[in-house]
Amino acid sequence: MTAYTPDPKLDLVLERTVDVAPELVWKAWTTPELLVKWFAPKPWSTSSCEIDLRPGGRFHTVMRSPEGEEYPSTGCILVAEENRTLVFTSALGPDFRPQPAGDDFAFTAVVSLEPAGNGTKYTATAIHADAAAKKSHEEMGFVEGWGAALDQLVEVTKAL
Description:
The two termini are 29 Å apart. It contains 4 helices and 9 strands, in the order βααββββββββαα. 29% of the residues are buried. By secondary structure, the protein is of the alpha+beta class. The chain has one domain: START domain (Alpha-D-Glucose-1,6-Bisphosphate, Chain A, domain 4). Helix 1 packs across helix 2 and helix 1 crosses helix 4. The chain has a 7-stranded antiparallel beta sheet with strand order 1-9-8-5-4-3-2. It has a two-stranded antiparallel sheet with strand order 6-7.
């Protein structure tokens, strides 16, 4: 996949360099048993995860609030380039089947990994259909939440 160029009017971007190799970041993103340990920013948690790591495959998570409410999310993997790029969307279900819009907005996530010394340049981009969806995602705490989740990912991978 060629690099995606974000549109500042429609997209949110989290970019950081972490001191974990791309292979470990990839493993944390693509192994359900690991993803449930870091994917939701605390005090939230991820109670379950299913990943069919292929274009058209299912990317399903269930987040749990501190009060115990569960929020399932099912999407479709669009790109899976080992140790480099993972792209998934909530706009499609498995096998690229369009799914009805829920209460939330649909978005596509592009997770790019590049070697950076002994670590990884990590770029997570959330692509939205319109400025209202971007604003809603931003107000939900995209940068803080995805940043906290990345810190948790690093912690999990360092324990491997």
